[in-house]
Sequence to fold (573 residues):
Amino acid sequence: MGNHFNKEFVKGASFEQLHKLCDEMRERIFTTVSECGGHLSSNLGAVELTVALYRVFDFPKDKIVFDVGHQCYPHKLLSGRAERFSTLRKEGGLSGFPKRSESEFDCYDTGHAGTAVSAALGIAKARDLKGEDFSVIAFVGDGSFNNGLVYEALNSLKILNAPILVILNDNGMSIAPTVGGTHDILSEMNGAGGGKNVALFEQFGIQYLGLYDGNNVEESIHALEKAKGLLKNGSVLLHVHTKKGYGYAFCENAPDVTHGISPTKNVKDEEYSTALGEELTTLAQKNGRIVVITAAMTDSLGLRGFFDKFPERSFDVGICEEHASVLCAAMATEGLKPYYAIYSTFLQRAYDEIIHDVCGQNLPVTFCIDRAGITGADGETHHGVFDLSYLALIPNLTVAIPSCISEFRAMIKWSETFEKPLAIRYPRSGKAVEIEISPIEYGKFDVLHSSMSDITVIAAGERPLSFAKNVLAKRQKEGKDFTLINARFLKPLDEALLSSVSSKYVITIEDNVEIGGLGAAINRFYLNQGKIIRNFAYHDAFIPHGGIVSLSEKFGVSEAEIDEYLEEIYARG
Fold:
C-alpha cells in the first residue's frame, strides 16, 4: 500500500484505480493520526477532492494554499511525502500543517484561519508581474469563510486583477459546527444558481461555480476542469460539499470530537478547560451579568455545559476573534461581565481590539487564555509562548498566571468581582491534585517556600513551578535550599514582596519567550540593585512541533539546566 501515492499515478489512473487510491489514502491517514495524533475528520473528508486536484492541476508548478491547513494530509501523501508520513507531528518529522521548508509543494505556511485567499492573490499577482503562467488555488473551508480577512481579500479581487481559483470546501464545520450569517448564505446556495447569494459573490468579481459533491472523485474532477477553463476569464469560486470524517461512520457522526485527536491520554492530567466551564457555570447561576464568548471553540474550551445551561448568555461567533473582542467590550459598557475563552495563539489575532476596545476603555472583560506555553505537536502557529510579552505592555490590563488547576479555579472565582480588564493564561492540562490555595489578592505573589539561602527562585505557571519544585526537593535532600515564589501576577508585579527579597541570586522561570515576559519585568525591577539574575525562558525563535518537555529543554526552560546553574552558585560558596 502506498506505491501509488504520487501525482504521476493520479494523472494516468482509471476512475476505478482512483477509488481504490482514495480508500488507501483514507486508511493511511486514519492509522497514522490514531498513532501520532492530529486532525482526523477534516482530512478524511478532503481525500477525493485532493485526488481530483492532482488529476487536473500540475503541482508544484501550479500552487495551492490551504487555509489553516487542517485538510492538507492528503496533499502531503501525494506530494512525495508518503514514506515519511508516519513521522507526522513527531519531533523532526512532518509538520501537521503546510510548510515551505518541508516541500516545494507547499508554497505558503499556514496554521491560522482566513489567510488563503489573500496569500493566493499575492502569489498570483507576483506571477503576472513576472510574466509566468501557472494556476493558483486557495483551498478554504466554510468555517474560515466567517473570518473577516477572507472578505478583505475578496474586496481586492478587482483591484489586483490576478485570477485565482477559490475552492470553498463546505462541510458545515470549523472545529465546531459553523454558525452565523455566512453559514446561512452558503446553506441556501445550490446547483441551480443560488440566486441573490451567488450574486453577492459575483459582485466581488468572482465567477461562482457550484454546488458539487467533493466526496465524489469523478464529479470533483469534472468541476475542477470546468473551473480551470473559466480562470481564463477571471477568478473562480468553486463551491463543493464534503462530509467531515467521510468514510468512517463514527467520525462522520462526531466530526467535532474527531476534528483533532491526541495519540494518548494521560489519565493523571486534568484539563484547565474543564475547570473553566464548571466554575463559570456555578458563578452564572447567581450572577446574571456573566456572559461567555468564544470563537468557534465551544467544546475545546470546556464551555459546552455553560452553553447548554445558559444559551441566552452564550455566544459562539465563529472564527472571528477580533469581532469577539469588540463584542465583549461593548457588552461590558452596558454592565455585563464578559468572559472570552480563547487559545493563546488565536488571541494574537485580536491584539488591536484588546488594546483599544477593551483596555483603552478599562472595561471588565476577562480573557481566559488556554493552551499557553509550548503546546507540542501542532508547532509554530499553535504554541502560546508570546502572550505574557504582548499582554504585559498594555495599560489597564492585569495578567494572572495560575500555578495549578486549584489556583485557577480560585482565580476564576476572584475574577467575578474584579471590574477591570483581566487576562488569565494557563496550559492545556495539569496534575489533578487537591491542594489548599492561599487567598488570591490583587497583584500579590505567593511564597511557597522560605529559606535563609542567598538564592530566590521566582516561577510563573504550572510547568515552571513543577521544574522548580523538583529541583528544590532534590537539593533539600543534599542539605541545600532556596526560597521559592509563585508569581501569580505578571502585571502588576508584587513590588512589596520583591523589595523584601534580600537574596543576591534571583532566578526566574516562565513558560514564555525571554523578551518581554516575567524575566524581563524582574530584570527591570532589580536594575542597578546589585543582584545576579538568571532568566529561564524560551529563546528568541519560532519553536517547531515536537514533545512539550523535549522542546522546552531545547529552547531554554530545562529542569536540568536550572539544577546545573544552582550547582554553580552553591559551588561559589
The two ends are 64 Å apart (CA to CA). The mean pLDDT is 92.
